[in-house]
Amino acid sequence: MKAMAPQSTDVVIIGSGPTGSAYARIIRRDWPEARIVMVEAGPQILPEVGGHLDNVLDLAERAKLEILAQGGDRSPRMSISKEEWEARRAGGFDASLLRRSGLFIANEGDDGEGLFAGFSAANVGGMGTKWSAGTPTPSQAERVPFIPADELEAALRTAEGLLGVHKDPRGPDPVAVAMRERLGQQFNPGRTPDRFVQPMPMAATPGPNGPRWHGTDVILGNLVKEPEDTFRILADTTCRKVIHESGRATGVVLARTGTDETWTLSAGTVVVACDALHTPQLLHASGVRPKALGHYINDHYIVSQIAELDTDAPMQAMSWIPATNELPFSVTIAPASLHTMPKSADLSGQPIGMGVFCPADIDEKNHVAFDDSKLDWHGLPAISIRWTQSEGDRKRLEWAKQTALKVAEIIGRPAPGFATFVQPVGSSLHYQGTVRMGEKDDGTSVCDRNSRVWGFDNLYVAGNGVIPTVTATNPTLYSTALATFGARQIAAARRSL
C-alpha cells in the first residue's frame, strides 16, 4: 500500500462531497498545474465517479448501493411498518426516520424535543450521491453579513455553474403552474420577483424520461480523466490526523479504512471537507481546537404536511415558496408517493408532500462532543450531540405548522388521516455552524470569511459547517458558493510565489 500511495501533493482535500469537489474544480481552474489528492473514507459505488444514486432506476440495486454508502454501519434497514405510519398519522414520533440509510440518533435524548438526528455516510461523492439536488438561493437575511453582497452574489452564480443548476428541470407542468399561481396570489405580494413562488431550482439535466440528477461527477468534470499524478481520489481511505506545526499544516496521516496501518502524505495545503460533524471531529483529533470548534451546531426543522390536490391530472414538478425577512420559512412542495402507507378512504385526490423548513435559534451551548476514550469506525473520537430546543424554536414551529396548513388549504386541503408532523431536528441533514466563519478571531468562529482556520496559513474547512447564520433554505448551493472563496485564495497564494 505504501509503495502505491502518493507521498506528497500540493493540495489534499479530505472528503469528496460537493464542497470538497468545488475546491478541486476551482483550484484546477485557477492553478492548472496543481497536484490534487482527494481522500474519501468510503468506496466508489457507481461507475460514474460521484454519480447520483437516484439515476439508478432498479430500486433493488439502488437499495444495495445505499447500504454500501452508509459508512461504518452497513446493516440493512427495516422497512416502515403499518403501526409506525399509524403513529405518524396520529402525530406521534416516526421511528422510521431513523431507518433512512445512514441516519441515526446522535445524542442521548429520549423524547421528540431532545432528539438530534445524525448521519453517517461515506462513499466517493459524499452526500452528492444522495442529496435531494435542490439548489434554492438563500434569502438576504440568511447570507453572511460580512461578505460584500456583490461578491457573494457572484459566488452563488459560480456555484450554480459548478452544480449544473436548472431552474425548472421537469419543464412545463400545467398542474404545477396552476398551483403556483394560486399560491402566488397569497405569498407574492410585497416580494421581489426572485422570491416569488416558483419551480424549485435543481441540480439536474432535463431528459425525455425525466431529469438526470447531478452528483459530484458534474462538479469534478474532466478532473476524473486526469492522470493520477495530477488528480487522484483515494477511496476507502480515512484521515486520522492533520499534521501541523507553528500555524502551518504540513500533511495528513492516512490509513486504509478498517485497518491500523498508516502513512503520511505531505501537502502544501490541507482542506478538511468531511461534513459538519466529521470536520470538527478531525480537527479535534488533530489538536486543532479553537474555542468555537463543534459549537453553535444548528439545523432547520422540517414540518411535514401531506395535502390533497383535487385533480385527475398528475403533477410531477417540485415547487418552492422562498424564505423572506417577513416569512422565514422555505417551503418545498412535490408529489407524494403513498404506496407504502396506509391511507384514508377519504383521500381521493392526488397526494402532495410539503416540507416547511423552519429555522432554529443559534446557541453556543449546542455542540458536537467528542469522546477521546472511544473511537468510531474512522478511528477517530466518537461523536455525540448536545442540543436543547429553545423557546423561540417552539414558537416558530407553531407558526410553521400554521403555515403548512395554510399552504395545504390553498393547494386543496390537508390530506385526511395525516397529521402535521415535526421531524426531529437534524433530519434535513443540513447541519451548520460547527466550523463557522467569522469576521474576526474573537473565539466565536473557527475560520475567516475565506474558510481559512484562524491561526493557520494553509488549513481550510468546507461544507455546511462554515455557515454562521440562521437559515431555512437548503444550504448546498450556499456552502458551495462559500467554498469558492477559499479555493480561489489557495490558487492565488500559489500564483504569488
TrEMBL record:
A Pfam family the protein falls into:
GMC_oxred_C
Keywords assigned by UniProt, alphabetized: FAD, Flavoprotein, Oxidoreductase
Glucose-methanol-choline oxidoreductase C-terminal domain location: 366-483
Q: Where is the signal peptide?
A: none
GO molecular function list = flavin adenine dinucleotide binding; oxidoreductase activity, acting on CH-OH group of donors
The family classification in the record reads: Belongs to the GMC oxidoreductase family.
In its UniProt entry, what is this protein called? Choline dehydrogenase
Where the record annotates domain Glucose-methanol-choline oxidoreductase N-terminal, the positions are 143-301
- Fetch the InterPro entries from UniProt: FAD/NAD-bd_sf (IPR036188), GMC_OxRdtase_N (IPR000172), GMC_OxRtase_C (IPR007867), P2Ox-like (IPR051473)
Q: Could you tell me which Gene3D superfamilies the record lists for this protein?
A: FAD/NAD(P)-binding domain
Q: Which cofactor does it need?
A: FAD
Q: Which residues form a coiled coil?
A: none
